[in-house]
Amino acid sequence: MPKMHQRHKRKSRTAATDHTALRSIKHLLARAPLLSPIADRAARQAFWLSWLEARLPAELAGRVTGAVPRAGLLTVFAESAAWSARLRYALQELEGALREADPNIKRVVVKVLPPKSPAPP
Length: 121
Hints:
Elements: H1 25-31, H2 36-55, H3 58-61, E1 64-70, E2 73-78, H4 81-93, H5 95-101, E3 107-112
Parallel strand pairs: 2-3
Antiparallel strand pairs: 1-2
């Protein structure tokens, strides 16, 4: 069989020859107006998660899987229904501190969201 002729393809430019500097994702998110609300939302969620972990008992703080603030409502996620019941009582005790941290929070809701399990090998 005869040899196939090679096509003349453009070679892709590598990062070493590319003259644009590589930038961090944080820098790119700051420049993209469509992505900045997503970055802000993620920062608020991270703030509330760390805030709750600092104020809840250690046993209960480890069972919180997330916290999402939205329009006067703070939704806190627990890993099971049993832990969500205990979390509701603990959050009632922290209600004053929650309002000090953010006066816009009018209600706190606890829902169940199991943690992500690792992917099977």
